Amino acid sequence: MSDLSLSQIHKSFGRTEVLHGIDLDIRSGEFVSLLGASGCGKTTLLRIIAGLETVTRGTVRIGGRDVTGLPPEHRDIAMMFQSYALLPHLSAFENVRFPLRMRRRGSRAEQAERVERALETVRLADLGHRRPSQLSGGQQQRVALARAIVSNPQILLLDEPLSNLDARLREEMQVELIEIHRRLGLTTIFVTHDQDEALSLSDRVVLMNAGRVEQQGSPREIYAAPATSFASSFLGSANLLPVTVGPGPVARLADGQQLAIPAGQATPGERLLVLRQEDVEMLPAEKAGDLKARVAIRVYLGARHRYMLDLAGQRISVMAANSLLLEPGEEVALKVGRILLLAR
Amino acid sequence: MTARRETLLLFAPGLALLALGFLLPILRMLMLSVVGPDGITAVHFARFFQDSYYPSILWRTVRLSLIITVLTAAIGFPLAYIMSRVGLRLRLWLVVMVILPLMTSVVVRTFGWMVLLGRSGPIASTLRDHGLVGRGFSLMHTETAIVLGMVQVLLPFMVLTLLGSLARLDPRLEEAARTMGCSFLQSFRHVVLPLSLPGLVAGSLLVFTLSASSFVTPSLLGGARIEVLAASIYKSVTQTLDWNFAAAQAVILFAGVALVLIPYLRLTARHG
């Protein structure tokens, strides 16, 4: 059964339409990421699901029930805000108890027990008495998460919850989110502009662009088989090169270099060649490769190097092991692993 | 020059003004209230409390000020809330509208109320036309008239003070409350109200003290029989020329206001 079903959601602010007919079904217990650049409409869509924003057209169903016209308090949801939105005049404990109190769930003692359990889940059991201003950013974030899961909502909405944390804390919280999702099995919708987050956390990624769903699928599908140039450039650091295919199983680059391609993809015409960083191997110029390029910039990353290469009049980015050290201006041979061609 | 000396220098003009314009007159007033023909005396205070006339004026002053404060808060809070939630352009217009009355003299505005509330004014004649009141009905020279006039005069102070604290309130807190099961009114009660309490307290203090010490509007709208303490002090100074008694009344007004305000401040300090 689907927990959430959106059909033909349109949303306009004034005369500008920001969502152009979104259809989306989310299964019970699924962890779905809404991924996209800022301004693509992902947060607006989340706010529509929460009931904080009205739709111009379309229907929102939660658990089979039409909730399109209902205010947030009559929807069985919980939302975690990017700014956490903790109530500054209440302790962490009272913040977590707030949804139970307002929704009149259980007696005072039962509420206290559920709050304790939620605080334990986010490993904050002994800080319940503190005010939000006495907690660190990471701790505030955990309180916000506890507050979102305590009422056991039908749908958990997370609006860029990790974007205010530093890199180390963020990774920690990602692992924790995965664990909590596995343990509680809450249907979760996660809004993010961070592709790594979307790929590592979710069962399904919904890639949005300019108010439309660009592509959706499992993280593996969407990464390995992007359907559009937008999808391929947004997911993973892909280099996109215009090529002409044919005659025969060959792609011709702008500078005349030729690359053999699988016969299955050899429909003649103008195409975009997707070269993912991890699919390109750099070799010294004297070795035989598929393509030749020239080093423009070398960046030391510690574990390896990133090279910016000039290929067919374009800059592409490629990773290389530290054992290979090339200077700017040197020629380099490229061995291409997986080849993916998109319509231009 | 060190930062400390700069601070002192910046502080000096304000401090001097405060000393000359506030501390000195207050000290002088305190002295006046306790001196008589034969040195230090409490006779002026004794006179105030010798019968129920002056205490009843004091009580009326405090009671009306409380009513005025509650009414300005009740009217001003929703107004300030809406002002804090609309766009900046519209807010500016609303602020101008709230401030506009302050640009005319309080005397002129009070005369306006006298026209509205008088026997031949629109309120009385409308009520009379519907047969709701008798021929001689007039709101003038009643406590209701004082309250109406004062609420209008003091509303801007309440609204602007509240707007200051409401505008700083993150609207996402209310949204968060809604997603946690609060209706609009519940989010108002549990989020907006407690978080804007400092503004509400500041506005109430301002309105209460201003209305306890005002005398133009109360004397014009209340007339000679419904006197407030500030008007009585004015009379002592200008008509009976009894400065010592005027000073004693002023001290009593000061103490009366303090008696109301101190518990109020204590209460809010505990909640804040």
How would you sum up this structure in a few lines?
With 344 residues, chain A is of the alpha+beta class.
Descriptors:
heterodimer, A: 344 residues, alpha+beta, Rossmann fold, OB fold (Dihydrolipoamide Acetyltransferase, E2P), 2 domains, B: 272 residues, mainly alpha, MetI-like fold, two-stranded antiparallel ribbon, 78% helix
Give a structural overview.
The complex is a heterodimer of chains A (344) and B (272). By secondary structure, chain A is α+β, with helices and mostly antiparallel strands. Chain A folds into two domains: 2-227, P-loop containing nucleotide triphosphate hydrolases (Rossmann fold, 3-Layer(aba) Sandwich); 237-343, Nucleic acid-binding proteins (OB fold (Dihydrolipoamide Acetyltransferase, E2P)). Chain A has helices at residues 42-50, 92-102, 108-121, 137-149, 167-184, 195-201, 219-224, 229-234; strands spanning 2-13, 16-27, 31-35, 57-62, 65-66, 77-80, 155-159, 187-192, 204-209, 212-217, 238-245, 250-252, 258-260, 269-276, 280-284, 291-300, 304-311, 314-321, 331-336, 340-343. The model of chain A has no long low-confidence stretch (mean pLDDT 91). With 272 residues, chain B is mainly alpha-helical. Chain B has one domain (53-271): MetI-like fold, CATH 1.10.3720.10. Helix content of chain B is 78%, strand content 1%. A two-stranded antiparallel sheet of chain B has the order 1-2. In chain B, α5 (106-117) packs parallel to α11, α7 runs antiparallel to α11 and α12 (229-238) runs antiparallel to α13 (243-271). Chain B is globular. The model of chain B has no long low-confidence stretch (mean pLDDT 91). Chains A and B meet through β6 and α2 of A and α8 and α9 of B.
